[in-house]
């Protein structure tokens, strides 16, 4: 019996020691998640929708980069948040895709966003100057082979000027395309 007791007690003590180490790693990694770098590296209009000759909405493709500065692997569960035009809510954003990021590495996530400019311009009374993304990036810790499964929200706020030069070129192109297709013939007859 004594022979069996010593190995069992040794195993219990070793598992407690490693368990405490895992808990401390978890606490440290949670603190470090806020220090990871979160940024849009590209926000580019890809199409416009017109209402007559006025801008109705713009479809953007964005590239969101997360750089893992922690000492362990992390995973992004999802991104959700609010899209603001000159500090007025214009829409919401949800991107649900699980992405594992090794320590010291970066991951770039493509996100497609539609922003209804018509309603925002009506509410503001002018063309907005800035797009602001007020986001929560939900991150998970990975310790060893295990994903801890408890998402940690990290607040990220990014403000960028509205790329009107590109939008205006797309509006002209869309208007010309509509004229060629005869969509405006009813206005001239």
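Sequence proposed for the structure above (189 residues):
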């Amino acid at each position: 019996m004594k022979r069996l007791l010593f190995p069992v007690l040794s195993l219990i003590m070793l598992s407690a020691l490693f368990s405490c180490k895992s808990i401390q790693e978890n606490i440290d990694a949670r603190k470090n998640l806020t220090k990871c770098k979160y940024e849009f590296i590209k926000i580019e209009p890809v199409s416009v929708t017109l209402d007559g000759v006025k801008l109705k909405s713009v479809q953007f493709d964005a590239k969101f980069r997360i750089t893992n500065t922690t000492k362990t692997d992390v995973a992004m569960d999802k991104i959700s948040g609010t899209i603001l035009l000159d500090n007025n809510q214009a829409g919401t954003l949800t991107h649900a895709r699980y992405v594992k990021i090794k320590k010291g590495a970066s991951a770039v996530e493509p996100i497609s966003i539609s922003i209804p400019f018509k309603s925002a311009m009506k509410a503001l009374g002018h063309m907005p100057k800035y797009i602001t993304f007020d986001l929560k990036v939900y991150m998970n810790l990975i310790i060893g082979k295990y994903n801890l499964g408890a998402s940690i929200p990290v607040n990220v706020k990014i403000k960028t000027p509205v790329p009107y030069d590109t939008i205006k070129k797309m509006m002209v192109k869309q208007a010309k395309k509509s004229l060629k297709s005869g969509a405006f013939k009813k206005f001239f007859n």
